[in-house]
Amino acid sequence: MTAAVLEGFESFTFSHDGEARDVYRRGAGPCVVVMHEVPGITPEVARFARRVADEGFTVFVPHLFGTPGKPFSTGYMLAGVLHCCISREFHVLAERGSSPITEWLRALCREGHAQCGGPGVGAIGMCITGNFALALMVDESVMAPVLSQPSLPFPLTRAKRAAIHLSDADLAVVRARARAGCGVLGMRFTTDPVVPAERFATLARELGDGFEAIEIDSGPGNPHGISKQAHSVVTKDLVDEAGHPTRAALERVLAFFRERLLTAG
After folding, report:
1. Three-state DSSP class for residue 244
2. CATH code (residue 7)
3. Could you tell me which residues come within 8 angstroms of residue 75 by beta carbon, excluding any fewer than 6 positions away?
4. At 263, is the pLDDT very low, low, confident or very high (cuts 50, 70, 90)?
5. Nearest 5°: phi and psi at 171?
6. How is 168-183 classified by DSSP, letter by letter?
7. Domain count, the chain
8. Measuring CA to CA, which residue among 124, 131, 106 is closest to residue 261?
9. Which of 13, 34, 112, 181 is at 20 to 30 A from 258, Cα to Cα?
10. How far apart are CA 148 and CA 161, in angstroms?
């Protein structure tokens, strides 16, 4: 299954500070780091990565957890959430602090910039990795950060619903960069219980015009019949049809990368 799902990708091992992980690479042009969602690099994540590569980018897809190429299932997803909850590399309840794995991901972004050139690197996180694109912005190589359904910290309290999984010091850097022109793109479904509206309100307040929000109506009676359980904007819940709001969100992500990494160059 892995070979078929990741056909056309090359793999290499990237090490930083004693931590080595496999990274799947495809395409040519400026680098975009695609941080997969729970449960892992599913066929839908690979499909999205191919779409980005086809736009003229080199995609790096680091293997963070799960089995590369394995299809989504509820059991697989729950096992992935449990893994992240007990892993030392993921702090799923942290309100004012990033997960430790973001240090390794920042180093990967620098490597992508060194290998692929261009004005900088794009980065998209999804679900548990969604907020990571903010933490990566602390490194100036990251020029196009996208937060797709950013789910950390898990919204178990009022404070956690509004929190953005970033230290105060890192937030100051992110705020300055966003307001200086390195904008942030965020996406969510409006009834997604793990990505509450309060979180996007915090991002809008902190980043001002530097935050662009795409909030897709998934409430009762919405015109596209989107489920109230919809979560994965550009992967599992993508409806790749003209006129559908998830297709529009995908096209905006691709345009965002072009604007920041191709046009800017």
Report:
1. coil
2. 3.40.50.1820
3. none
4. confident
5. -60, -40
6. HHHHHHHHHHHHTT--
7. 1
8. 124
9. 13
10. 16
